[in-house]
Amino acid sequence: MTGGGEARESVPGLLPFLAANFLLGDIQTGIMPLMSIDLLLGEHWPSKDVGFVLAVGSLVLLLFQPLAGMMADRILSKRLLFFLLSGSFSIGCLLLYDHPSFGRALMGQLFLGVAQAGLIPVLGAVAMGLVGSKGFPRLTGLSQGAIHAGSVFGAISVLWIALHGSYFAIFAYYALSALLAGLILFGVPAKAIDPRRAREAAEKGDPLPVRRLLTPSLGLFLLFILLFFVANTAMLPLAGDKLSTILRSDSPARVIAMLVLVTQAIMIPSSLLAPFLLRKVSSGGIFIGLALLLLSLRGGLLAEMQTLGGLLGGQVLDGIVMGLLSVVLPVLVAEFARGTGRFNLLQGIVGGVVSAGAALSQLLSGHLLDLWGYDRTLLVLSGVALTGAALFIASGGSGLPSSRKREIPSGEDP
After folding, report:
1. At 384, which CATH number?
2. What are 339's strand-pairing partners?
3. Taking 50 as the threshold, does the pLDDT of residue 408 lie above it?
4. Pick from 288, 295, 292, 291: which is nearest to 335 by CA?
5. Quick check: 154 and 30 in contact, CB under 8 A?
6. 389 contacts: CB under 8 Å, gap ≥ 6
7. H or E element that contains 58
8. Helices 102-164/308-337 angle, 10° precision
9. CA distance 311 to 114
10. Cα distance between residue 303 and residue 315, in whole Å
11. What Å distances lie between residue 399 and 183, 221, 241, 292, CA to CA?
């Protein structure tokens, strides 16, 4: 694939694939921050209860994502699996509709958690099955650009609905968009998704035993990911809550949509640029250390700034970092998995670590917010990111895929 036009022509079902990614970005990015602000400021729940409910969703993600990865490796009909997961997302949204009770909110988080555990890994498997490892970075950049464009569209839509409707209408909008995403992926030809290629399997031989995937370099890589998401996940809801207080807004949904809009608008060019940057460096793992440093800076900026412009500046940093990582992380996972036949399982393991970090982040911020307020809580999260950056520098970035070939033999040279 030498050019954008050639890449588009060589991928069967590219338009419905990108459309499904677009709709996935539309529904996924704002749902948890919106739920947080709705329960905290709209329903007047105690912050500890909100943190607990959100953490339950993250824990469901933690438990289900490795299983979702194994299912994506084994189930041939990835389009049907994606449709069922999108249906689970829709059910979760409808359970949050119309002043949810504590029990109904927990049940909604269960359905949302199951869906979010599998939606992105299944789309990653479809991408790998369509183009293989050689074309994967380019197609991942395109799909992530579509996801972020969908998030911008979703944020604008939520802003419009918030001006003319209610929280209930927003959750209904998310439910319908999820179902449409599940339906539209059927436009990708089933025969174009190679099942062996989709799991990064070698041409011959069985998948590598799971125990042989668990190496020191992979463990350190997962530690960096954990620390990043412990620091990152709660920052957007905290920034939204803080900005709502500063602006004395009577519509938190508008505030969170505005923050998401800024972040996602920056993520579009950042993710599209990521494949080019990956080709220019010897190891994509360097972006993990850079992301931790920039996240630490973002937390300090959000803590210190008391104006709309300052808080939006923090979201610009978030857009740069998350746009790069949205492409870099799947590519690094593919490098760890090459020739093992365990690509989607590794996606699930990484997703589980992300969810563990998200759960810890929500629990930590939920407790610290009542004790110390927004600014000190943000500084604690910034300190977690700085600790991760220091560990990355001290280790020399040894948890990178470049060391994988020495530690994860696949039986053949992939």
Report:
1. 1.20.1250.20
2. 201
3. no
4. 288
5. yes
6. 289, 292, 293, 296
7. helix 47-74
8. 120
9. 32
10. 12
11. 39, 5, 36, 14
- In the predicted structure, residue 282 carries a pLDDT above the cut 80: no
Q: Tell me the two tokens of residue 74.
A: 């084994």
Q: Under DSSP, is residue 285 helix (H, G, I), strand (E, B) or coil?
A: coil
Of 8, 68, 399, 389, which is closest to residue 216 (Cα–Cα)? 399
Assess if residue 156 is contained within a domain: yes
Confirm if 273 and 327 have CB atoms less than 8 A apart.
no
Task: Name residue, tokens 């009542």.
Answer: 370
Short-list 48, 93, 360, CA closest to 234: 360
Confidence of residue 286 (pLDDT cuts 50, 70, 90): confident
E strand or H helix at 256 = helix 252-280
- Residue 413 inside a domain? The answer is no
The verdict on residue 3 lying in a domain is no
For residue 201, the SS3 value is strand
For CA atoms 363, 369, 374, 377, the dihedral sign is negative
CA–CA distance, 275 with 137 (Å, rounded to integer): 6
* Model confidence at 191: pLDDT above 80: yes
Q: Given the structure tokens 């996602």, which residue do they identify? A: 264
* Prediction pTM value: 0.77
**Spatial distance between the Cα atoms of 327 and 324, rounded to a whole number of angstroms:** 6
Instruction: Mention every residue, 6+ apart, whose C-beta is less than 8 A from residue 272.
Output: 141, 142, 144, 145
- Please enumerate in sequence order all residues whose Cβ is within 8 A of that of 168, keeping only pairs 6 or more positions apart, or say none: 97, 98
Q: Kindly report, residue by residue over 37-55, the tens digit of the pLDDT.
A: 677 766 777 777 887 887 7
* Domain extent for 31: 13-407
Number of separate domains in the chain: 1
Could you give the residue ranges of the DSSP H alpha helices within 338-403?
Answer: 343-395
Strand partners, 201: 339, 340
The number of beta carbons lying within 10 Å of the beta carbon of residue 206 is 9
Contact 138, 7 (CB under 8 A): yes
Query: What are 107's two structure tokens?
Result: 């049940």
First to last CA, the chain: 20
Q: What is the CA radius of gyration of the chain?
A: 20
Contact 208, 342 (CB under 8 A): yes
Within a domain: residue 374?
A: yes
Find out whether 139 and 131 touch, Cβ atoms under 8 Å: yes
Question: What does the alpha-carbon distance between residue 389 and residue 294 come to, in Å, rounded to a whole number?
Answer: 9
Identify the top-confidence range among 146-155, 157-166, 287-296.
Answer: 287-296
